[in-house]
Specification:
The complex is a heterodimer of chains A (115) and B (117). Chain A is an all-beta fold. Helix content of chain A is 0%, strand content 52%. Chain B has 117 residues and is mainly beta. In chain B, the strands form two sheets. In chain B, strands 2, 4, 5, 8, 9 and 10 form a six-stranded mixed β-sheet that branches. The chains are: A mainly beta (115), B mainly beta (117). At the A-B interface, strand 5, strand 9 and strand 10 of A face strand 4, strand 5 and strand 9 of B.
């Protein structure tokens, strides 16, 4: 049972344009959401997070939007740069899910930013 | 400063053999996590250590998997009688451990790529 889903395995965007990565979740007990970025042969690195009490969080070129009613979040990267090419993982956690220490990850979306 | 390190970076073993994977967390981080990523899958939580508390082992897939953390620092993940389905990248992460784990920024190591023939 995949509780965090990233339905697009890959995405290609031109440099300078907006990249939009999507994530859906099924567990309504999730109340904290994170995005991690992963380059080949490296571990994931934290990018940005959002609490369920907010619907938007912005950090430089990165913005995460949360739509709780739709159980959907998205990561916007504007403008996209070639160095953004990586695999992006959506993750979720919930204090009342029964395993408070656990992050549940999606399967990732590979973003390629072309020149 | 030094990040999370893992060894070996790659491990090839025969089915039925035992393997040990090592993780050195960031100094001062009291929380340590193990995940694995199988081909085409997301990161799957395995186990979580926090200070002297009993570890959260809820993600271990079978009793062939075990982990320990000595002295609150280095951790070893052991897989006994390896099977081909154990082939995956095993990732270790650490965090400060001063707040609820679900909100902490986890710092990942580069992973150990395990191949069971």
């Amino acid at each position: 049972d995949q509780q965090v889903k990233q339905n697009s395995p890959s995405l290609s965007v031109q440099e300078g344009r907006i990249s939009i990565l999507n994530c859906d979740y099924t567990n309504s007990m999730f109340d904290y959401f994170l995005w991690y970025k992963k380059y080949p042969a490296e571990g994931p690195t934290f990018l940005i997070s959002i609490s369920s009490i907010k619907d938007k969080n912005e950090d430089g070129r990165f913005t995460v939007f949360l739509n709780k009613s739709a159980k959907h979040l998205s990561l916007h990267i504007v403008p996209s740069q070639p160095g953004d090419s990586a695999v992006y993982f959506c993750a979720a956690s919930g204090f009342y899910t029964g395993t408070a220490s656990k992050l549940t990850f999606g399967t990732g979306t590979r973003l390629q930013v072309t020149l | 400063g030094a990040g999370v390190s893992q060894s070996p970076s790659n491990k090839v073993t025969e089915k039925g053999k035992d393997v040990e994977l090592r993780c050195d967390p960031i100094s001062g981080h009291t929380a340590l996590y193990w995940y694995r990523q199988s081909l085409g899958q997301g990161l799957e939580f395995l186990i979580y250590f926090q200070g002297n508390s009993a570890p959260d082992k809820s993600g271990l897939p079978s009793d062939r998997f075990s982990a320990e953390r000595t002295g609150g620092s280095v951790s070893t993940l052991t897989i006994q009688r390896t099977q081909q389905e154990d082939s995956a990248v095993y990732l270790c992460a650490s965090s400060l451990g001063d707040r609820w784990a679900g909100k902490e920024t986890q710092y990942f190591g580069p992973g150990t790529r395990l191949l069971v023939l």
